[in-house]
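Sequence only, no structure available. Ideas?
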Amino acid sequence: MAIIGLCLAATAMAVVLRGLRAEYALALSLTAGGLALVGIILALEPVLSEIADMTMVSGIGPENTAVILKVMGVGFITQLAGESCRDAGESAIASKVELAGRVSILVLALPVFGQVLQIVSGLLRL
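Reply:
I predicted one. Tokens follow.
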């Protein structure tokens, strides 16, 4: 709730500032977004711990857990960066940020794809 309150207060201030000094409104928006991201990451700590526990029980290796968490992080950060670019009126740059995020996710997930292909080929040999 504190994060929501921070974001709503920052939004109200940004709307007022946008009429007076647009560059300050953008700086406020980016700062509030960064603070919200930090708060969200701190709030996710118990969730990440629980995910790690579940993957240990399920037999998924720690390397796959790391890939999953990295992919989630890249997705969140990419969305925040893209929306920040759109807020600044730069939708073309936002599209490139999102494309870079997708490519990063693909690169991160490549080892998992290799493992899946090995499992599938092993099953087909049976």
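Residues 82 and 94 are 4 Å apart (CA to CA).
Hope that gets you unstuck.
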